[in-house]
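WARN no homologs supplied; continuing
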Amino acid sequence: MADGRSDGSARAFELLEPLLQAATVRVHAPPNGYERPGTGATWGSGFFIAPGWVLTCAHVVGEGGAGMRLTGREVGITFSSGGDGATGTVAGRVECVMPERLEQRRAAGPGLWELPDLALVRVLAPVSHACVWLTDRARPRFDEVAYFGCTEDLGAPEITGRTTRLRGTAGNGAAIRLGSDDDIEHGMSGGPVVDLARGEVVGVVKARGRGGGGLAVSVVQLRTLPMAAKSRIGLYRRVMQGHDLHHYDQHLSDVDNRRTWTDVHDELPRTDPDPFGGRQRLSPGERTTLCGLLAELPPPGSSEAVRQLVEAARGEEPDPGPLAPLSWRDGLGLLYDPPGGVSEAAAMLRYATDVSVAEHREPPAPGADEELWDWVRATAERLWRPLRRELGERHERGLAEREADREGRRLAAAGLPVPLGPARTPEVLPPGPSVLLEVWAHGWEDVYDWRVSVLLGTDHVSPVDAGERATRPALPDVLRAPLAEAFRRCDTHEAAALLEVAVAPELFTLPVDQWVVSEGVPLGTQRPLVFRHPGGSGRAGADDDGEADEEEAGHRRADRWARVMAGPLLDERADCDRGRKRTPSYAWFDGQPDNIVPVHCRAADLDPTLGSLHSAQRAGYGVVLCRRPPADPTVTCAPFHRALREELADARHAGVLALRLQSLRGRAHGRDPDAYWADGLGLVWDDPGRPLPDDEPLQGDL
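OK structure emitted
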C-alpha cells in the first residue's frame, strides 16, 4: 500500500480505529462550570483503561504546573460519549504519578521527564465511555503499530491515528522506540500505542524525536504503581480488575450490536499459523472470559505465588521479564509460547485450574472459584481428552492440598499439634523469598558495584539488576528502581519481604534504612532489614590465633545461632567499656556465652569496631548489633546501651529482632522520643542455614 502498511495491518487499523478513537481522550485545563465545557488549549491526550480511569503521561497533567503538586491536581477530560461522534467533558483528579519522585524532580524546560512518566487520572463523575484492551505480555513485539492522540490538523481538536513500527526498547525496557513513518504531534503525548497484529495496547506516546520517530512508555510500567499497604488490594490490581471485568461484561452483553474489542480480536487477520489445528490458543472470547473470571477472584497474595503457578503450568521457569507479575492476568502473559510442544491453551487451562484451588488471602465471592473451574472443564471439551483427564486430577489434588493447609492453620490457631509441620513462630521474619542487595567497593576507588537479586531459597537466586561504579551518595537513587522491582516480586499482602544487605563490615552503617524507595517513607520503617557478611555465613578456619578448623567452626556457628534463637538474650559491649574504646580479640569472643549479642556503638569503618566485627564473625556469632554513631562525638553512649539492654531483654529471643527494630524505626519516624535512641541501629544477621551467593562482580579488564 502507498503508506507502507501491509494488507493485514491496513485491515487491522480499519478494525481497531473506531475502538481507539472511542477510548482516547483530550486532556486540558479543568472545566470551571461557567465556560463552555472543553474549551482551552490541549495539554495532551490520554485513554480510558478501566471504568473511570484514564492513563496519560505525567508531563501532560503537569502542563503549566511546574510549581504545584501533581497528585490531587484536577484536569479536564474530553471524551467520546457515543458512537455518533458526540463528545462530553468531565473533570478528573490525578491519583498518582510514576515515578513518585516526579512530584519533586521534573524536567526543566523542554527536557524529557523521567521514565516511566505516567499518570493515572480518576474521573470525578459517573460517565459512560469505552476502554482499550491492554496487553498482558511483559515484552512488546517489534512489529507494526498504530498510535492515537489529539491533533488539530483541520483547525479543531480531534482524535486521529497514524501507523509506524516499533524499533526497539530504551530505559531498560521501560520505553519503546517508534519509527519515523509519520509525525508525532504535540497533542498526541499520552495517547495509546496499539499492536496491530494482536489488537492490544502496548504503550503510551511520550515524545517525538528531533529526526523523526519518537518514544512511548510500555504499559507494563503500570506495575510500578505504588504498592499497597498491608492487607490492601493496591491500585494496580484494582484498576486491572476493573479493566478485565469491563471487557468481560461487554463480551457477555447483548444490549447493542456495536463491535467490542473481543469481536475485533476475532476478526483480525491471522499472522501466525496454529500448528494444533485451532487448539493452540484460546479464542478471543475464551481469553476475555478467563480474564473476567480471574478478576472476580481475590488478587494473588504475592508475585511469587503467580510465578510458581506459571512455572507449574509451563513446565519450566518463565522468563522473569522486566517487571514482576502482580495479578492473575499478568500470569497469563507469561504463558505464551510454552516449551516442548505444549499449546498455549493447555498451559492457560492448567494455570486457571491451579488458581481455582489456590488458597486466597481472603474468601472469594461465593461460587467464584467453582465458576472458574466449571469454565475450565467446559473449555477443555474442545481440546484433547488426555488433557481433560489431567485437569480433573489436577483439580482434585489441589482441593485436597488446600483443605490440608486450612486444617493445619486451624490446628495451629487452636494451639494443637500440626501433623504437616510446626506452626510459624509469631513475630519472626516473614517466610518466603527475600531481597538481596550486594554492594562491593570498586578496588581502591571510592565507587561501588552493586547487584540486586531475589532469594527464592538456599539454591535459587533470581537476578533483578546490577551496576558498576556508583558513588556512595548516588547509591539511593541508582538502587531505587531495582529495589522497587525486587520488592514487587517478594512482598505479600501479609508482610513486606526481608531486605538482606550483604556488604563488607566497614559498610554495616550504610544508611539503607533511611533510603526512600516508594511512598516517601524510609525503607527501614517499611520492612525488616538486616546486614550480612558477603559470601555466606562466614568461612572460619585455622589461623595464627589458634582458631578451630572449618568443620568445628561450622558446628560452633550453628550452636550459637540456635542458642540466640532460643533465648534469653544477653547484651555484651564489644568495642566499648563504659565509654572507653575496647579492642576485643577472637579469643575474647570465643570465650563468651553462646546467647550473647555483641553490641557495637562506634564507627564500623574504623578500629576497634571494624576488627571487632571480623572477630565476632570468625567466632561464630551470627547476630550482632552496630550503629551509626551520632554526629557529636561528645555524646555519651550510655543511654543507647541502657535502652538496648531493655530491648533485648523484652525481645527474649533473636528471631524477633529484625521486626522489633523495624517497629523502633517506625516510632522514631513518627516522632516518638522514646525511640530516638535507636537511630542508626543496624542488625547483622548471618543465618548459617541460609548461605549467600559467594561470587563477586569482575573488577574490569586488566
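The radius of gyration is 28 Å.
OK
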